[in-house]
Design a protein that fits this description.
Blueprint lengths: L1 H4 L1 H12 L12 H5 L26
């Protein structure tokens, strides 16, 4: 329960739920793509914008 209510984890869940991740490879890439520390929307690591699950293309088994 402590982990679930941890402010950092609550913020992370909100980010994942909103799906506000940049589709990094769709724009041709930039230096942000190489480091994967931050994306062009200001999301910090992990910035997994090209995750097929996050784009709604696949579902985990």
């Amino acid at each position: 329960m402590d982990l679930w209510l941890d402010p950092d984890y609550v913020h992370y869940r909100e980010r994942v739920h909103s799906f506000a991740f940049a589709p990094c490879t769709a724009c041709g890439g930039c230096e942000l793509l190489e480091t994967n520390e931050e994306d062009c929307l200001g999301n910090t690591f992990p910035s997994c914008g090209c995750c097929l699950w996050a784009q709604g293309l696949i579902q985990c088994p």
